[in-house]
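Quick one, T. Sequence first:
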Amino acid sequence: MSEGVAVNVSLDELRQWIGRTESRIERLAPTPVAALAATLDRDDPEPRDGDTLPALWHWLYFLPLAAQSQIGEDGHPRRGGFLPAVPLPRRMWAGGSLTFHQPLHIGETVTRVSRIENVDLKQGRSGTLVFVNVQHELSGANGLAITERQDIVYREVATRVEAARPRLAPQSCDWSREVVPSEPLLFRYSALTFNSHRIHYDRPYATSVEGYPALVVHGPLIATLLVDLVRRNLRDAAIETFAFRGVAPLFSSMSFDVCGARSAESGAVELWAKNRQGELALESNAKLKSGRSE
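Structure tokens:
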């Protein structure tokens, strides 16, 4: 594993990115939808224009298309551009929250406007952490459809770090599903989301350079599997809000469970992923819309 190197982080310089915006337009083509359905082992009919796009599946679009010459050692695009040029070597998507105002549909032309909302610096067990909050607004033919906040964290290379005490996941649930995160599954999801971060497909890099025991399961993939659990058990449900936060990583070939429990009083659904030791890996909650999905 690489040794940590002290890095000087100027918060004032990084905060100059606050308020920067980016706008992109894309047609929601059906092929990525069919490909993700196959990846998740869903027996869905062939997607057609006009079909409702499932919650979180907009992550198949507006992908970062950095030129190969602009890819860094870790597989991410080099720092700078729309996102702040944070001088820390490790980057991950730590969590986020979404509000689904109305459905998007396959074949629809959608505009996404992104804005850097905040940049903050903290000290954690692994050293310096920089948090970047990005706000996205996706609008289709009928106006605003999705408001999303993404929480991105940058950190130093961990050296001798005191391990966090594992948190046990809830023991009871209404639904659960075992997932075996095989290397082909991680590769296919990386390909679908054009995510070239090497921790998800390059085992020697993940273990020797970043110090993980195996390939790392994508946080957005786990979140997608949690929402998919709702779809499998509440077929007519539509999600109004969804928030998630990564707690601990999950790794390839080490099975885990996605679980959910519905509150009869509030209509909310608590969702979580846990490893085989029963330890919490990702926690989330969803609020369901009243009535049937569109």
